[in-house]
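Annex B, item 7. Sequence and structure tokens for protein A, then protein B.
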Amino acid sequence: MATIWIKHADVITLNEHGTLLHDADILIEGTRIKTIGTVPPDTQADEIINAAGYVALPGFFNAHCHAPMTFERGWAEDLPFPRWLNEKIWVAESALTPDDVYWGAALAACEMIRSGTVGFNDHYFHMNRVAEVVEQSGLKAMLAWCTFGIGDDKEIGPGADAQIAFSREWQNAAEGRIHTCLGPHSPYVCPPEFLKKIVELAGQYDMAIHLHVAESSEQVENSQQRHGQTPVEQLNTLGVFEHRTIAAHSLALTPTDCAILAEKGVFITRTPITYMKLAMPIRTLISELRAAGITRIALGSDGPASNADMDMLAVVRQTVLLEKYLRVDPEALPGDTALRMATQTGAQALGFNESGVLAEGRTADLILVNFNQPHLRPRHDLVANLVHSAKGADVTHVISDGKLLMRDRILLTLDEKRILDEAERRAFRMVNQNMNQVREYQA
């Protein structure tokens, strides 16, 4: 059983008391944290890391993303959301191949590890290829094969039934690091009968559901006209929320919607950089969700085509700043609250309940951030410096399930140079050929 001894770190535990430790040691044995605080000096370890001047904290869990969309980074710029989808994204994806998905996800994995992410919640196509990347990289993931339910010619890959075969093959694979769930795109795309089928499959196979919900007031108004209900009310009526659900975005909610989401314990994932980049109004702020009793709020990057990167430290910072600005309240959403959303709540959404806190006996999913830098001194408040001053590039070490994925900024599980070259070659090939619009966005 491999052991890692981290010495002299300052530790942000993110436990229920918000405990901070200074000049502390962490001993990792196998996949678990064995000791945190003081380690006997005669302890033997396979690897010793001198972390003086570094901060240890739980690794990030990106609770909503489309990792292979690295191929579309910089491809769909300065467009409103409907044109962004109809003219660029859903057009480029008509030329997508399974190998493209593999290399796009591999590029994302490099980026995620480099910025301190240990797990991600992916919603895309050809997810068997993404699963291969997860297996090779050492990351954790919950994977949903996105489906539309509007005809085989509009799908990329199998329909809902074939997702079960994918789940059977990959659920708890890679030594338990891979979880799977069902991935209907959204109530504004998927017909009600298809969503009913998803609910049946979720019940039959005990699967979670990950989908996009209430991304705009227009979607809500159109749903009320078509179905006589908001998207949240419709999903509740169909039984979706009887299963563990990750409702990405949920930007335009009514008080009734909030009451439903709170009662059902739905996880909501916010991706603030996408909203700013695509100028998507936020009708329901995080503070309003919390006031309504919704406690399961996680954070994500969304896809690199809309966010442009997958740096969860940037997501945390922008979440805090955006909430304060829109509330016109500097006390809105403290930094440690946003950190918990990006770590432990995200881990819970993905089903990795032993992650997200640094404590003895918990899973060893953690990162080290180098505070020996001008922009991170003085250290009056470690959490404030981390949230408002740190960057993904300040992460030096990443440990997932007790295994080093990055040491001193060097990736250990992936061939980064090959991935960079192959991903760029394939991305250029994808957008420089005849493409078709495979579906159309209609709110």
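Protein B:
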Amino acid sequence: MMNLVLVVLSQVACLVQPPAIVPGGAGRLAGEEIALFQTRAGYSVSVAVESLPGARMLEVDPRGTLYVSRPSRGDVIALRDEDGDGVFERREVFLSGRPSVHALCFHDGALWFATSGSIGRARDTDGDLKADEITDVLPAGTLPSGGGHWYRSLLVTAEGIYTSIGDSGNISDQSDTDRQKIWAYALDGTEKRLFSSGIRNTEKLRLRPGTDEVWGVDHGSDWFGAAYGERQGQQAITDLNPPDELNHYIEGGFYGHPFLVGDRVPRPEYREHPELLDLAARTIPPAWSIPAHWAANALCFIEEAPRPGPGAMPIDHRGDAFVACRGSWNSTRAVGYCVARVLFDDGKPYGLLQIVSTHDPRTGEVHARPVDCVQDVDGSVLFSSDQPGRVYRIRYTGTR
């Protein structure tokens, strides 16, 4: 068994409020914030897309077209690097007029997309980076919308469609509703069935390469210590609990929320629940626990690149997951704000390495908030930041 590797972000001074977010830095030229990132030796970061306000979820098709969803604008932008320099200089509005459009998944020649209450499919039949065939597979109103955690995940495979509906609050008991669950559908939007339950907020689902295993990262809940009398700024319990969860979702699986967190630890608000022991026995613990309040938001698995470039992730990264973490608000210390690599061996996680931190521990400033990551066709990894609105590229520069 390989040794456990766990790298935790640098600790900073206690903060009552979340750290200051400096979108690119006042008076700073575009991309200069990268010099303030904490980048692990053997990797480099550059700007791949400049000035894309509200950039959130990413997808890359086999031709190398990058798609970026912008829920706040209700559109999806399509981009292409036409000269191969690593910067996407051509951009078009692929899709618009879709409020809260979020999750993206390319399957069978089409870009599938999810809004808060619907799932659709769009095709670019003439190669102009604009959708000209749009189909509503699950029309508006099919999925619960509004409330908290209104971002939907989306995975489309030959077997069907998977989407998650998060908790409308923090630790609500919504067991008898469509929320806190992953639902599966046939590719035509029929045959709805429950896939997994007991989730809080999983914003992206993906298959582990070479398998039909569904994986995602689930946000941990807030204010774990409130039931013990903690107050904001004096929260020794909340600062370290509960973890975010990297989960392998299986059909029929229950993952604990809102009753239990992490390795079957009860939320104090539910410690008197009459079925707590039965719920604990049913709960599938996380495959890997990510530190509390990192806000692990989305993941991508590393595969063999179709057109590998000099910055492609090396062979020993294949099968590992990169995870984009947006960072804390419910913590007195700045934590998260990074892209991390979760190491896998024989299909199971065994460690975590921080690759890029966008938080500067010297000043307390945050220079980007990673939202999503995806592997490009050249084998490098792209990650989005909605503050500032950019997409960055991580290249491997170490020894092969």
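Comment on protein B: The longest helix spans residues 276-282.
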